[in-house]
Amino acid sequence: MTPVDAAAGQINASSGSVTAPSISPTKAGAQVVGFFGVGSATTLTPPSGMTERGDRASSAGTFKVTLEAADMSRSATGATGTRVAAAAAGAANIGQLVSLAP
User: Fold this and answer.
1) What is the CATH number of the domain that holds 85?
2) What percent of the chain clears pLDDT 90, i.e. is strictly above it?
3) Tell me: the pLDDT tens digits for 2-27?
4) By the 8 A CB rule, do 47 and 34 touch?
5) What is the count of structural domains for the chain?
6) In angstroms, how far apart are the furthest CA atoms of the chain?
């Protein structure tokens, strides 16, 4: 049995909104983890309803990047809806949601 119940991600155009697409966990009590990345050294605010677990910006070298992880628990099955983290500075970005089975 795999611990991953559902997962989806999307690439977004240059924006301060870092969107992860909706997923549909099939198991009640799943933990939904969001991963958000921005192609610039900035700060990220987690999506509403999610708890930030880490936020790290790298300004070393030529390519700058900021990454964030946040999570939320789900008592029911069904669609999570999109989750949108906010970047202080807009850049090309990516959002990913992963549902971990209880």
Assistant:
1) 2.60.120
2) 92
3) 899 999 999 999 999 999 999 999 99
4) yes
5) 1
6) 44
CB 7 within 8 Å of CB 96: yes
Of 19, 4, 10, 21, the C-alpha closest to 81 is 21
Asked if residue 1 has pLDDT above 80, the reply is no
26: left (phi over 0), alpha (psi -120 to 50) or beta: alpha
Amino acid at 74: R
pTM for the full predicted model: 0.93
- The one-character DSSP state at 74 is -
* Separation between Cα atoms, residue 77 and residue 73, nearest integer Å: 11
